């Protein structure tokens, strides 16, 4: 499975951006889709995930501001980012897990497929 991310860019604090990720194969075959990010000098952080059934989970740092969604027909997962802050500046990566147990928290999924990163820069 290949994942192609796009949509990053520069925005002022308080603004909005959308990043999207298109999969080479049907999303219905992928149990969990997620977005991670990595800021300079920091570890990669899982910020949002969505299951095949549409269940979502967010990191506290983005909860209430970001929305993750998936469109299985279009093989696409989208991250709508609102009220962006300077600290949201990072390279954003989409990832996919082909399997996932319903008994395991979404953020514990094993993501074996990764897209290339897309830069998001928020100026204060």
Tell me briefly what this model is.
This protein has 124 residues and is mainly β. The protein contains no helices and 11 strands.
Could you please describe the fold and organization of this structure?
The protein has strands spanning 3-6, 9-12, 17-23, 32-38, 45-51, 56-58, 66-71, 76-81, 90-97, 113-114, 118-123. By secondary structure, it is mainly β. Strands 2, 4, 5, 6, 9, 10 and 11 form a 7-stranded mixed β-sheet that branches. A 4-stranded antiparallel β-sheet has the order 1-3-8-7, with no helix packed on it. 34% of the residues are buried.
Question: Main attributes?
Answer:
124 residues, mainly beta, 7-stranded mixed beta sheet, 4-stranded antiparallel beta sheet, 0% helix, 48% strand, globular
Q: Which secondary structure elements does this structure contain, and how are they paired or packed?
A:
Blueprint lengths: L2 E4 L2 E4 L4 E7 L8 E7 L6 E7 L4 E3 L7 E6 L4 E6 L8 E8 L15 E2 L3 E6 L1
Parallel strand pairs: 2-11
Antiparallel strand pairs: 1-3, 3-8, 4-5, 4-9, 5-6, 7-8, 9-10, 9-11
